[in-house]
Design brief:
By secondary structure, the protein is mainly alpha-helical. The chain folds into two domains: about 220 residues, Transferase(Phosphotransferase), domain 1 (Orthogonal Bundle); about 110 residues, Up-down Bundle (de novo design (two linked rop proteins)), CATH 1.20.1440.180. It is built from 15 helices and nine strands. The strands form four sheets. A three-stranded antiparallel β-sheet has the order 3-5-6.
Length: about 325
């Protein structure tokens, strides 16, 4: 890099040499050299950028793992002292290494926060189209916080999961206007749980966005076991457990959350013998989502050996997203 940008280069070197970043999902520092006109920052060898990976439609890497890598990189910056604000998250600044891991790079305009400080005051910085709502103010006094990185990380996650789309869409001017207004579309991602995570992250109001630790504990990253535990909890809810006075409104709400996925023949997914063992002979489980949830709950409670032999998340891949959307709409379990 030309020494006309020497301070930017030295800032990146200092940050990348910080011990807290050495074992993280951040691109590794190797060496630094300089001559009369240029400074040279030698970094870990990577194959290509995230943008190149998505644009080339290279399906070798799993999008979910790339999303996790991006957030783990951000956790390394935000959750250890000193806290670091990246301030220039974008697809070109995420590199894919030789092992297929996504690594955060380009810390030239990043800033370390002094201990016990959560805000960095400065003029607007970043790349057009990849800037948080609060950094687009015209008065020049921009307050950068970790929540600023979070919103742009949410844009990045949508970019990954949608195959290269931007949640705020539009051409150059429309895009910036949409970010200011908080006007977005997530039509190119079908996973309702992923959409819930993205919506929380790209919220127009900084105080409403989750911290990176909360992003990483979001249900999008839950294991199959944890998802089934959640479904069992829902199956234990009073309104779900009651088969005497079935709430038709509840059934309609669940059907709406299912977005066209039908559960009126869920019993065909199980062996007749298993259905017979678990079913209530006096009042069989109804063939709707409520009946399935109650069946799953009782299967695990009263027939653990049978439950261990059934992969419920594979049998019903859309059920968790449907039920999660339903419970969020009700304010949680």
């Amino acid at each position: 890099m030309s020494k006309t940008n020497y301070q930017v280069l030295k800032n990146e070197e200092v940050l990348l040499r910080h011990p807290k970043l050495y074992d993280s999902c951040v691109v590794k520092y190797v060496d630094f050299a300089e001559d009369e006109n240029f400074g040279y920052l030698c970094l870990q060898l990577c194959e290509y950028t995230l943008e190149e990976h998505i644009r080339n439609n290279d399906g070798i890497l799993h999008p979910e793992e790339l999303v996790l890598d991006v957030l783990e990189s951000l956790r390394a910056l935000h959750c250890k002292e000193p806290q670091i604000l990246h301030r220039d998250l974008k697809p070109q600044n995420v590199l894919i290494d030789v092992n297929g891991r996504a690594r955060l790079a380009d810390f030239g305009i990043s800033r370390r926060l002094p201990k016990n400080q959560t805000t960095y005051h400065t003029r607007s910085a970043g790349t057009e189209g990849w800037m948080a709502t609060e950094t687009l103010k015209e008065d020049g006094d921009i307050r950068y916080k970790s929540s600023t990185d979070i919103q742009v990380a949410g844009m990045l996650i949508y970019f990954i999961l949608s195959g290269g789309h931007h949640p705020f869409g539009g051409d150059r001017y429309k895009l910036m206007s949409n970010i200011k207004k908080g006007k977005y579309k997530l039509d190119n991602v079908q996973d309702v749980v992923a959409k819930d995570l993205i919506e929380r992250m790209i919220d127009k109001e900084p105080q409403n966005r989750p911290r990176v630790e909360e992003c990483l504990s979001h249900p999008y990253f839950w294991t199959s076991t944890k998802k089934v535990q959640y479904l069992r909890q829902v199956g234990n809810m009073k309104e779900v457990a009651s088969r005497q006075n079935v709430n038709q409104e509840l059934i309609l709400m669940l059907d709406e959350c299912a977005e066209g996925v039908l559960y009126n023949q869920w019993k065909t997914k199980f062996s007749p013998d298993l259905i017979q063992r678990v079913d209530d002979k006096k009042k069989p489980y109804p063939e709707n989502i409520l009946g399935l949830l109650r069946f799953m709950r009782n299967l695990h409670e009263h027939h653990p050996d049978d439950a261990a032999s059934v992969d419920l998340t594979s049998l019903f891949p859309d059920l968790f997203g449907c039920v999660y959307k339903f419970t969020i709409g009700k304010g949680g379990i």
